[in-house]
Amino acid sequence: MTPPLLTLLNTPAVTVPQLDTPDLLLRGPLPTDLPEFTALLNDPAFYRFLGNKPQTEEEVWRRMLGQLGHWAMFGYGAWSIEEKATGRYCGSVGFFDFQRDLTPSLKGTLEAGWTLAPRLHGRGYASQVLQAALAWIEPRFPQARLTCIIDPENVASLAVARKFGFQEFARATYHNAPIVLLERARQ
Length: 187
Hints:
The chain is an alpha+beta fold. It is built from six helices and eight strands, in the order αββαααβββαβαββ.
């Protein structure tokens, strides 16, 4: 059950542009996303390539605050993804500067990231949201280097990244796990 205060605060103080795809709505994170996002981050099929461990509601809440914090600090961040047919929260897509302790460093790059509920995998939704997000970010930050990191076993996500021009430039270890570092060649 959503606490009453969260219902009252269902409009973020930070303005996040809304984007539409044929099947999905990209909008700012809302407090009411918390239960669905927490459920996703406790589904092994969802988190297996995202640190391979479930997250508590507190950790998910902090993740959401960080998504909005990027918008407030940098003018970019993550969108919550809502499936138009159901109105359900189903993931996120966006750009970040996480200041990761990683070699080679991604600091100062726009690090792309996308996640979708497993129930929606295989429908082309990742391509829809990444295409919309890239079309929004590139004209606003034309000189920025676009990067992403992906678990080497996440074949589907690697295929989406390559479809949009991301190419591997290094492999590293991050949080004791192998990771592929990719960057997008400018179109």
